[in-house]
Structures are given as C-alpha cells and as structure tokens.
Amino acid sequence: MSVKQKVNEFINSLQKEEENLFPYLANNNWRPGNPVYYSGPYWDEKEVTSAVTTLLSGKWTSAGEQVNKFEKEFSIKFGFDHSVMVNSGSSANLVMIAALKKYFGWKDGDEIIVCACGFPTTIAPVVQAGLKPVFVDINWDDLNWNLDQIESSITNKTRAVFSSPVLGNSYDLDRLIDICEKNDIHIIADNCDSLGSKWKGSYLTDRAVAASCSFYAAHHICTIEGGMVSSNIREVVDIARSYAWWGRGCYCVGKQNLLSNGVCGKRFSDWLENDTIVDHKYVFGVRGYNLKPLDLQGAIGQVQIEKFDDIHRIRRKNKSRIQSIFETIPGVRVINEKKESETSWFGVPIICDDSNLKRSLVSYLEDNKVQTRNYFAGNILLHPGYRDLGDGTKYPNASKVLDNVFFVGCAPVITSEMIDYIEEVITNFSKS
C-alpha cells in the first residue's frame, strides 16, 4: 500500500469517528441556528490526503513539483499558455503589474485605468509599481465600471485597463475590447472573483494580456492561501516568477529543466558581464520578494481543479435560488448576469433602495447567524490610505455602494438546508 493510500485510509477512519472532521463539506451536519458562513473551502478527504502525502514525501516543502503540476493544470483548464503560482491573490497582482511594466517598458507615471469601487489590491500594485491609477465610476444597474468613462479617460499615457468584474459578473466585454483595440491599450484581468466566468462562451480572460487569481478560502479554488499569474506571453510569467522568487533570473521549473534533486539543470553558466561563472539560480535580475507558495498548496490545487466544474455549477445554482429569496423583499434588487454571460458567481450582490433598509436587513441576517459582506471597500478613495490618489466625491455611485450594497455567499459549502434557513430568516424579516 502506497503512502497516499495509507493516509487516505487513516483520514477515512477519522471521519467515521469524528462526524464534523470536515465542517465545511457539503454533506456536513449543519443545523438551523448554526452559522451560515458566506464561504469556506470545499474540501473532502482528497485535498487533505494530497496535502499530508506531500508533507510526508520528504521533498522540498516550498514550491516544487506539486506546484509545477498545478501551474500546468491551471493553465490548461483556463486557457493560458503559462502560469506561476504565488502565496496570495494580492501578491499575484503585485508581481503581475511589476512584470508587465518591465516587459512593455512602461515608465513611471504611465497610466492604468482602474475602477474606483472594489478591493484595494487592484489599486495598490499600480501605485507600488510607480504607475498612475486613473479612476472611473461604476454604473448603478450592475455595479460594473462605466465604459463611457473608461473611453473618455484614455490619454497618450494610458497603457492598460485593469479589470475586476463585480463578484464575477461581466460588463460588456465586447465593448471594452473594442475600446482597447481602437486605442492600442491592454486589458489586464484581476480574475480573483471571476474564475470560470465566461462571455459568449469564452473565459473573461481570453483577451487579457495577463490575469491574476486568488486561492483564498472565499474564492472558487482554495489552496489554504495562494494566487496565480497567467499569460500567453511566456516572458511576462517568467518575470513575474522572478519577482516572486527573490528577483533571481533563473526561470528553470519542471522536470525538463531541473535535476532529480530540484537543482537547476543549467546550474553553472556565464551570466555576469565579466564572464564570471556563477550559479544560475543566484543571478538576480530584479529587486524582488519572497512570495513563493508551499508545495502542499500545489497538491491541494490539483484536486480542486478536478472539482471546478461542480464548484462552478453549484455557485450558479445557489445564486439563482438565493436571489429569488431576497427579491421578495420590497426595495431590494439582486444583480443579474447579462444574456451573453455565464457568471461563476463569487457572491450574491444585493442592492437596497436606501441605507436604512440595508442596515436593518444586514443586522437581522447577522443576528440570525447568516454571514454578510460589504462590497469590499466601496469607493476606495474615501479610505485613509488612498485619499491622496484622487477626489472621492467625483465617484458618487462608488460612494453609494457602502450605504446601499452588500452580498451573501453562494459557495458550494452552502447547502440546500442552509438556503432553506435563509428563506425562513428572510420571511421573518419581511413579517417584522
């Protein structure tokens, strides 16, 4: 019996003894009155077995062959030529923007168009790379960015638009592509919330020069933590890997480039200008970071890829049912996907007609242990760390998000019984 089989057998025996061993599983023993979390890892014994087996292998604990396999499988699944895994989705954005700046030769002060409403780590990497974020407001109907404002914001210094679809739901991608092509600028995709979302049958990232993804527990794929940078341009991914791996210029990954002990197969070469022979892995081309993932995370990711189609299907199913429940409340509207879309929903976006309704509804849900979330930062320019980047009053819809918008989860860990309970809670709220 292999080590993996022995570990699996042991975990199965624990499951029989401890019925709540995996509390986030879809077949858990949740009961009304227990918390309904908005998300959580959709795992079973397969993920745990893969992680433990990797730890017991005695091989390198940081990014190694399991991470390399996951990078390849992720690329194949989501239509990329190349990918590099890092320690978080935020780190993915950081090294992706830095890599694009270096690859295209962008200068300090060049402009990247961003949405004023969303998560800060779509904005911070732009500033950290020495680039200038140019903000646009959102539309109130779907909370996605205003495409008219994107078009009017383009200058001779604009290099790209940094896209982040609201909770996975697409804007009019055809029009954005048209705007970018006419102006010779790139689409960069923050795909952390929208993994698996499609527009006219193709992934939202198909026309992006590069895309990021998060594997935090709330996201579609969970590897404990983690992120990915993907592109069809190999050098972009190589540079991103360099930034994530201390800045070294060695991009040697995979069995074709590594010796059996994990050492670079091109170990010694003339890398420095004076022809000094230096270990390939210790030539540093950029000032980088240490943002490497763990190999066990790569092992977990491989199992999650196998489950992704089910994850996508359940998220869509849960969103549809939860939407029908909230739409029974007067003054509440739930965002729909466009007819051209197939959204892999991160959450169920709920818009209230006024702030008092939002406050009372959120308070009632939380009091009844149904977890809610604001739509992230709302207007990022209203936050202390970002006020110096622009005048927040110029983006009224983004500001309105904090008062009127929230979301609840639709992740696969939310079972039919939990949704029944949410319906009961909403019914009681309406009566009150």
Q: In words, what does this structure look like?
A:
The protein has helices spanning 3-17, 45-56, 65-78, 89-104, 124-128, 147-153, 173-183, 234-244, 295-326, 355-367, 396-404, 416-431; strands at residues 82-86, 111-115, 132-136, 158-163, 186-190, 198-199, 202-203, 210-214, 227-231, 268-270, 277-279, 332-334, 341-342, 347-352, 373-374, 405-409. With 432 residues, the chain is an alpha/beta fold. It has 2 domains: 53-296, 3-Layer(aba) Sandwich (Aspartate Aminotransferase, domain 2); 309-431, Aspartate Aminotransferase, domain 1, CATH 3.90.1150. It has a 7-stranded mixed sheet, sandwiched between helices. Helix 7 links the parallel strand 4 and strand 5. The relative contact order is 0.16.
* DSSP helix fraction: 25-40%
CATH superfamily of the largest domain: Type I PLP-dependent aspartate aminotransferase-like (Major domain)
Radius of gyration: 23 Å
Beta content comes to 5-15%
Q: How many β-strand runs? A: 16
Q: From the 3D coordinates, which CATH architecture of the largest domain would you assign?
A: 3-Layer(aba) Sandwich
Please report the distance between the alpha carbons of the first and last residues: 60 Å
Uncertain spans: none
What would the CATH topology of the largest domain be?
Aspartate Aminotransferase, domain 2
Oligomer: single chain
- Helix- and strand-based class? alpha/beta
The major sheet is characterized as:
7 strands, mixed
* Count of discrete alpha- or pi-helical segments spanning 4 or more residues: 12
- Mean pLDDT score, rounded? 91
CATH class term of the largest domain: Alpha Beta
The ordered string of helix (H) and strand (E) elements is HHHEHEHEHEHEEEEEHEEHEEEHEHEH
Strand order of the largest sheet: 1-9-8-5-4-2-3
Structural shape:
globular
